[in-house]
Structures are given as C-alpha cells and as structure tokens.
Amino acid sequence: MATIRETAAAVPQFKVDELEGPPLTLRQLTWRRFRRHKMAMFGTVMLALLFVYSFGGALVFSEADANAVETAARLQPPSREHPFGTDTIGRDVLARTIYGGQISLIIGLTAMLVELVIGVLVGAAAGFYGGKLDAMLMRFTEAAFVIPQIFLLIVMSKFFGSSMPNISVLGRNFSGSVVVVILIIGVTSWMYLARIVRAEFISLKEREFVLAARATGTPARQIIFGHILPNSIAPIIVSATLAVAAAILAESYISFLGMGVQPPTATWGNMLEGAMNYIEEAWWFWFFPGVLIVLTVLSINFLGDGLRDALDPRSRAV
Amino acid sequence: MDRPTLLEVNDLKTRFHTAEGTIYAVNGISYILKEGETLAVVGESGCGKSVSVQSLLGLIPIPPGEIASGSAVYQDRDLLKMAEPELEKVRGKEIAMIFQDPMTSLNPVLTIGKQITESLEKHMKMNHDEAVRRAVELLEWVGLPDPARRLGDYPHQFSGGMRQRVMIAMALACGPTILIADEPTTALDVTIQAQIVELVKRLRQEVGMAMIWITHDLGVVAGLADRVIVMYAGFIVEEADVESLYEDPRHPYTLALLAALPRVDRRRHQRLMSIPGAPPNLLVAPHGCPFAPRCERVIERCQAENPSLEAVAPRHRIACWVDVQTGGPR
Amino acid sequence: MGRYVARRLLQAIPLLLIISVILFVLMQNIGDPLATMGGRRPTRSADRERLRRQLGLDKPVLVQYVYWLIGNDWTKVDMDGDGVAETPGVRKGVLRGDFGSSLKKREAATALIGERLPNTLILMGAYELVVILGAVAVGMYSAVRQYSLFDHVMTAVSFILYSMPIFFIALLSMYIFGVNFKRWGLPYFPTVGMFEPAAGKTVPQVAWHMVLPVASLALISLAGYSRFMRSSMLEVLSQDYVRTAKSKGLERRYVLFVHALKNAALPIVTIVGLDLPTLLGGAIVTERIFGWPGMGRLFFDSVSDVDTPVVMAIMMMVSVAVILFQVLTDIAYAWLDPRIRFD
Prior knowledge:
The complex is a heterotrimer of chains A (318), B (330) and C (343).
Chain A: H1 26-36, H2 38-56, H3 63-67, H4 93-129, H5 131-146, H6 149-160, E1 167-169, E2 172-174, H7 177-205, H8 208-215, H9 220-231, H10 233-256, H11 284-311
Antiparallel strand pairs in A: 1-2
Helix pairs in contact in A: 1-11, 2-4, 2-11, 4-5, 4-7, 4-10, 4-11, 5-7, 6-7, 7-10, 8-9, 10-11
Chain B: E1 5-18, E2 21-34, E3 38-42, H1 49-56, E4 65-74, E5 77-78, H2 84-90, E6 95-98, H3 102-105, H4 112-123, H5 128-141, H6 147-150, H7 160-172, E7 178-182, H8 190-207, E8 210-215, H9 218-224, E9 227-232, E10 235-241, H10 242-247, H11 252-260, H12 300-304, E11 310-313, E12 316-318
Parallel strand pairs in B: 3-8, 3-9, 6-7, 7-8
Antiparallel strand pairs in B: 1-2, 1-4, 4-5, 9-10, 10-12, 11-12
Chain C: H1 2-28, H2 33-37, H3 45-54, H4 61-70, E1 76-77, E2 87-88, H5 109-144, H6 149-162, H7 166-183, H8 203-237, H9 240-247, H10 252-290, H11 295-304, H12 308-336
Antiparallel strand pairs in C: 1-2
C-alpha cells in the first residue's frame, strides 16, 4: 500500500463574488441584496414620489384651495382649471388628493407606530416571561384577533368618532377624528405583530447569549431591549412596513364608509365616500384618490417584499 | 459469458447552466451493460453518478440542465433522442429506477397500493382488481409482512427498510429488463442495508434483470456487482470486472478509495487513510486530469492532458498516465 | 378525533366569553340608543325613562351583561318605576339563542339576521368557489410554465390587485362593466341590488346581479392565493416523489394532477378555511356599494342607528363562525393529509 502524503498542489477555489475583496458587513450585504431586488427599488422610488406629491404639492396648492367649496362648479370633469375635476360640492380634486395624501400617509405611519409599540410590548412580555402572563396575554390576543378588524373599526369609530376636539398643529386645523382613527387602527392591528415578536422571543430566550447576560446579572429590561429585540429586528421591520400599507387600507375603508376621518379634513378614503351614487356621472372624483391608494399600497408591498428577501437570505423570492 | 448488450452509453455529457456558471457534471462517459449483468458505479458525492443515470431516463430538469452530447442506445433506440411520450413507455416498464431516500421518494399522500397499481394499470393495462392482486403478490415477493392489509397504508407508516422494499416492488412491478438503483442503501442503517442487498440478490436470481447499482460504498459493491465503473469529476477513471478491481486496482483514485476502507485485518493503531485535498470544482471546464490536484503519483503530463480510457488488462481499462506498479509513466 | 374536536370546542368557550365581554363593554359606550329612537321628535323624558326601564338600560353594566347572557325570565323586573320588581322578564339570554330585539324594528335580532344572512351566504359561497378554482388553476399553470409570459403577467397583476382596496375594484368594475358597457351597447351587469324588483327574486336574476360583487371580492383574494398556490406547486414539483412518479413512466398530466396537486393544495385548505368568516366583514363595503341586502349592510346600518342588540348579535355570531371555521379547517386538513393523526 502506498503512503499518503500531503500534496502541495493548490486546490481550486470556488468563485463566489462575495469572497472577492474585503468582507462586507451585514448592513452592506443587506443593502446589496435589496438593491438587486428591482421591484423593491421601484417601490422605494414610487413611495418617495408619492411623498413629494403629497407634501411638496402643498407648496403649489394651499389648504384653502383644497377646501374651497364652489357648488356652481360641482362634478366638473377634468379640465385645465381642475386637472382632476371637481367633487360633489365643487372642491378641486387635485388639491384634495394632495392634502388628503398627507393625512392618509401620516395615519398609515403613526398607526403603525401605535401597533408596533403595543405589539412589541405584549409579544415581548409574553415570550420572555412565559407562564401565566403568557397564557393570559395570548388568550386576550387571540380573542382580539378573532373579531374581524373591520367590525371593530366601525364600532369603535362610531363611539369614539366625535370624542376628540379639532386640533391645531403647525397653524393648520385637523379634525379630531384623525387621532381617533390612528388610535383605533393601531389598537385593532397589533395582534399579528405580537405573535411574531412572541415567537422570536421564545426561540431566542434559550440562546447562550441570553443565558450569559442573565448569568452576569443583567436586568430583564436590558436583556429584552438590548439583547433579544435587536436580534429579532428583521421580521419586525418587515411586518412594520407591511403594517403601514394595511393601516392605509384600513383607514380608507372606514373613511369610505363615512365613519373614519370627518370633513373638512380630506383623506384619500373619504374622498370616495358615496362614490357609487355618482357612478354614472362622475368617475374622476373616486378614480384619482383610488389610484393613489393603489400606488401607495403597491409600493409599500414591493418595499416590504424586498426587505423580507434582503433581511433573510434563506427566503426564496416567489 | 457473451450475453447480448442491453444498453450502450456513448460519450454522455450533461451540464447545468446556473447563475454561478456552467456545472460540468458528466463529461463524456461510455459503458456497456449486458443482459443480466450488474454494473456498479462507484465514486464520491458529486462525481456525476446520479446525474448520469438520471440523464438516461430524461429525469434531468431541462431548463438548467442540458444533455450536451452522447447517446444511450437501448433496443436500437437512442434514449437521449426520444420524445417524451416514447420515453414514458420505456420508463417503469423497460427501465426502472429506485432512489436513495425512500421517505421522500414516495408520495406521502397516496397509499402505497395506489403507487404500485398505477404503473400496473398504465403499463400492463390491467384493470383495478387485477392490479391490486398483482400488487399484493409483489409485496409478498419482496418480503413485506401482511401485504394485503398494508396496501392501504401510507409511506410514513413503514420503517425505512420496508419502504425501500416497497420501492423495489414498485420498480419491478412491470418486469423491467434494467433496474437502476441510485444509492438505495445509503440512507438505511447497516443491518437493514444488508437485508436489502440480500433481497436484491434473490430477486435478481429469480428474474434475471440487469442492474446499474450506484453507490459510494465499496463494501456493497464487492458482494453484488459483476463489473465496476469508478467515476471522478464526471469522468470514468477505471472500469473492470469486480475481481480485477479489488485484486488489481490500477488507478490512483481507486487505490486511494480502497486504502481508505477501514479494515479489520490491519494493525490496530495504524492511521485511517484519507484522500487529501477537496472535491473538484465542477464550475470549471475540465482541463487535464481531474484527479491531478489530489493525486499521489501526479506527473507533468497529468496537468496538461486528460488521459482517456485504455486497456491495461483483459476487460480492464483505466484513464491514467501513470503506471501505479512502477511509479513511472505508462 | 372526536375527542380532539370536543377539546377544541371546549377551549373555545372561555375565548368566546372573553370576546363577549370585550364586545359588551365596547357596546356600552357606543352611544345612547334612545337618542335616535324617537325619530325626528325628541322623546319626552318620562317616555325615555320608561323605555330605559323596559330595555333594562337602567341597571348596572354587570347586571346588564348577565341578563344579556342568560336572560332575565328567571327574575322579576321593575317596569312601572316604583322601585319594586314585579314583572317577570321575558328575555332568555344569548346562551339560549335570544339576542334580544332590535331597538329600531322591534323584531328579534336573530330574525333580522336570519332574513339577511342567506343573501350574504350566497355571495360567500360563490366567492369561495371562484377563489378556490381560480387560484388553483392560475397557480398551477404559473408553476408549470414558470417564467413564461403568463407567469410574469400574472405575478404583476396579482401584486396590483392585492394592493387595491375593495371599493376601488368594485367601483372600477361597476364603471366598466356596468356603466360603460351599457353606454357602448354591450350586454352589461347590474350594479344595484339582488334582483330587479319587476322581475322578482329568481335564480337567473340573482346570478346576474351577483357577478360584479362576487368578482370584486374574489379578485383580491385570487391575487394572493394564486401566488401562494404557485409557490406551493413549485416546491412540490421539485420533490423526490414527483421524480419517482416520472421515472415510472406516468404521463405528465397524471403526475401533475394526481401526485403533485394533492400535495400542493393542502396548505390552501388552511388559508381558505380561515378566510371564510372574515369575508363576512369584507362584504360590508361590497354590500354597501352594490346595495346588496346582506348581513354586512345590516351591520353597518345597525351601527349607524346604534341598534345595540343587533350589532352585538352579529359580532358574536361572526366570532363564533371564526372559531368554528378554525376547528373545521383543522379537521379538514387532518382528513386530507394522512400524516396527521390526533393523539
């Protein structure tokens, strides 16, 4: 039998682009993967444009323009004077979509923050402490989850709808219903997020770095917010992004039904209220806000999809 | 010993076109399978043994995969050039295949009875009752206890060894002339492995089908095969009758494989031998002998030219520039 | 398996109790039903007091909840305002199927719901059928013809549809197929109601009127589920057992429909089953747009009128439906997948 000795010959290397050059940080890798996702880039750009439209458009049209009632010019089709036409009481649709956009987008973002806070707190508490607290919280979460959101939204907006006075921010007047809508959407949407956070906590709780932190006497709050939460940030980010889209849709649904944001404050949703009654005469006053909603939600969905792929290298794009 | 040739494979080349580049999985292999003969294909993971036999039956997914050249003649027809409907008639009926992992290779939501009778109904044109009866016979034949009742069971209700018996019954149901076994015992534990090999030997004696048995386990080969092909990086490096291979191995890779087998009759504290280096990178088009980077006896010519198969003894060919007995070039 | 079902249903009870408490508390604060009851004329305060007593609204919340749950026919109620309870109550309570009477119409809440429920169920049934068949067909075809033009178009369309609010699709379809088709002289779809009053509630009438509402509801779900089916199918097609089936010489279509489909469709069962009851909610917007006399409209109208008993009844029933469907879905999944067994 021959003896085996180490050969000095070089072993051929696999050529994978990430091994060339200096190693990239996690953030750089994530950004690279995200950039490759064409739809996500499209979504981001689109979203940026929509923000520019809603907030930058305020430089072109004043709020008074958006709320100017001119019943003589009601239901005018798109023209040079009113590029998007006028609505049932003669207001310019284009200006209203600009200001309505601001509200819709703000509601989407803030409602998401509300549900993020609630969802993370509930999920973290349940997942970290376990036991009776977990059982109680989960029972409650499930109960809240069982009732379809839109029922709760309608009922809550009916009750709480007129309980907030109009507020003034930055020299502008907003109907108090905006705050109400933000709160009720937030309060009825956190359950899904809580479940995700809880699952992450349960799986990360037993990992060595947590046990090590515990062994060195780190207080619970520090462990939760400083150790476990940062490690579960990926699914939270994805869920939060998609939650914005869901919140915008939810607001549009109840505003469409007339129970969400109240006049004169415009949102894309309440601009369509009662549109089916004018279906034969005027398509423009529901079409344009509707398209804007679709574009916004679409962009956010693309963005969320891209984030999901970028943050989890194991998931395969569908 | 001069039995008719059943299958003649000539210069088969299979590639995969992926995002990272082209994978050169099979790089021109040729061999002959005679009636009733058992041919073992040996080699490490990734050497192309599974891909080569899957290419024969058209089981390679064609968008990333491509059969770049070659022919596989069975009964005067080239399998590689057949259209799908024609190939469907050959699969299962003339040439059957069993796979490595019987758990994932059986459909979990269909009863095993159904999975056997469907081939019988299609290829043998039996009606349902005939097929059921035949299925029971087959299960009994492969040694499955209580076959009539177990026809209605699902794959997860069987143990690994029994599942493999079911697969064998399924494959042999329509009486194929060639059975291709792609590492059928690798996923089983050793005692079950032995049982399956014994079963196959018995069946072979009763039916006389030819077999292509793929494995990386040289121990199994010794008890089962008539001829052996050793593959490396998509090439055949040695081809011989089984006795010749074990008594007189001529290729450095074969030598290394045999040396790596732990043996009971060696001195106790001798180190286990392993082959240094890493498996070949199939993303690079082959140039020179593929085993050169890891070969003990490499000479200059090995890096430059890829040796082709040449006879060194009766019915014994190797692809090497070096004579392992002398250490010098051949 | 019977034990499993019993256990799940038993587990559902505390859940439902919690839900009922949440809902009841919510409803207490929804507003004063009495304010809207008299119609235009404000009710006299004496009448209001009487009504309040009659409806049991003068009792503390906890007592109201108990009466709501188990009725008050086992006790006496003070009807004439003298502080002495003398009249036996007439309510049987929710646990015995009595959800009280509508404050607006003085009919039993369950009766009102019973009138409207079938209309919503018709929509639901048609929707479910369209979604299942459509998603499976499109998903399967997309998977088999991966990366083809059809596949890319369908993915793009799915994304867009999935991002649309129901009312937008409804309005759009109403506009194109209802209004414009009519203008262009093409056969068009009706946009209001369940049937033409003149023609009566016949099957063809209802079917005709159902097209637009069902299509609007279904398109969004179709978008999501067909993509899901596609990925499920793609995963199944790459499995070993599909390769085995192919190696046995079975025909492509047979392998696709008998071997692959059964495995790929399994997860769809779960999702579809869980989706059904929330449909009762999504229908609210659709029924309003198309003037469909179903439960969604009843809910919306009842909330607007602060008709508490009806609102509570609907929400409780929907919650029960959701939980019931969860259990049914589990059972269906176990029945279809032989690997799942209950211990």
